[in-house]
Design a protein that fits this description.
By secondary structure, the protein is of the alpha+beta class. Helices cover 42% and strands 19% of the residues.
Length: 185
């Protein structure tokens, strides 16, 4: 009886393993023959194409928010400039290029020299906001409204934060207005 049970158990294990292997091979074949590229593989190449196809209309804030939606959650990578990772100045450069067809320097050092200085209490959507956080030379984001700004955070990737939060208020450095007055519709 014991021998019979062992034989039956071995048989079921072999059959179960065979079914599992068959299911995995069918799944792998169906995934590998999918002609559509994975959604995560396309954002970097499609992001710029989509931005160029869309007319540059809407308020400054709307344009920035649309770019934010394309980049939202992209992880931070020092020196990065694509959907696999981007840093703060690369993000600002990409948003200004795609939303406003405006070429900004690649670094925060270059970006802080653009436009004209703006007081913290006079910020408008599109103004660049700069910070000097600890253990990081400089950080830049783009002001949206009501103390919100969009940026590529080391901890959260591309996200929206509030300037009036303790951390950002403490390390706020300066702001610059780089958009010409004619940018707003």
């Amino acid at each position: 009886m014991m021998r019979l049970l062992k034989t039956i158990c071995r048989h079921y294990l072999l059959v179960g393993a065979g079914i599992t292997a068959l299911a995995l091979s069918v799944f792998a074949t169906s995934c590998s023959t999918n002609s559509k590229p994975p959604a995560a593989a396309a954002p970097d190449t499609n992001r710029a194409a989509i931005a160029k196809e869309q007319p540059k209309t809407g308020s400054v804030e709307q344009r920035i928010f649309e770019e934010y939606q394309r980049w939202k959650g992209t992880r931070h990578q020092l020196g990065g400039s694509g959907s696999d990772g981007i840093d703060c100045s690369g993000f600002v450069q990409a948003v200004y290029q795609d939303a406003f067809n405006l070429n900004l320097p690649r670094t925060t050092t270059g970006q802080v020299r653009q436009g004209k200085p703006v007081a913290l209490n006079s910020l408008q959507p599109g103004d660049l906001v700069f910070f000097t956080p600890p253990n990081y030379p400089r950080h830049v984001g783009i002001f949206l409204n009501h103390s919100q700004f969009v940026h590529a955070s080391k901890a959260k990737g591309v996200t929206i934060s509030k300037i009036d939060q303790y951390y950002w208020r403490k390390y706020y450095w300066t702001a610059r207005r780089v958009l010409p007055a004619s940018t707003a519709p």
